[in-house]
Amino acid sequence: MRYGTALRDEIALPGTTPLIGIYDMYSASLAARHYNGFFVSGFGFAASYYGLPDIGFVAWPDMVGFLERLRPAFPDHHLLVDIDDGYVDHEVACHVVRRLEHAGASGVILEDQKRPRRCGHADGKAVLPLDEYLTKLELVLNARDDLVVVARTDATEEKEILRRAEALAETAADVVLVDGVRSTGLIREVRAVLGNKPLLFNQIAGGKSPRLSLGELTGLGVDVAIYSTPCLFAAHQAIDRALAELKAEDGRLPSIATAGGVGVEVSTRLLERNLGGHRPAPHEVPA
To answer: Structure pTM?
Structure first.
């Protein structure tokens, strides 16, 4: 299957395509009940796999290994992968792109940040000289076969954001992302300079960007929306609450009814659907 083509076709449809941030196989199994597209978030992967913040610790073999587990379990899902700056080196970036495409990725996001990197919604970001980034981007584009490539800028000054967005629109990148954009007005300005190039918007709870519905994003001309952390932050809150309640009950587990009906049987049925590549249909709830 040509996963890049499938994602391009989805992006070309009317409306804004949502891709849900997942960080491990369990979160992906739950997300698959509701959405047909995943975003393999660098923030979530760094947190879950290493227990570290999203400041450049992800190693490319670990990300490739995750995709090699993810794709067989979810053969029909769009899988967009965050590869940060391509793991620094141009040749490494091209090698990783080839490996991810071979593993079944639908697309990658390549940013223009300078090391030490930061989460796109954090303060203190610095970007590479534009020409240096464009050289890396062109090499990555030449290294892919069918893979969707999202060109991302982390520029923070409005004039520089628009200059870079316009330059990225002139490349062969499939989609452009301005990360950490702070207003709907700036989204409109970016949309205007991109022309017909698809625009991606990144939403993260507590981030720099406004909270917008898919309908609002469609009205702004946004083609793709990635939701980096809803699964991770929901798990954070739920685990913390569950353990606080367990401590308060002197170690007595709650009843299944109190736990929202989730126990060993429901969890096992969810995971059994990953055997042989079967996935639950959107909105399907385990019986």
So the answer is: 0.91
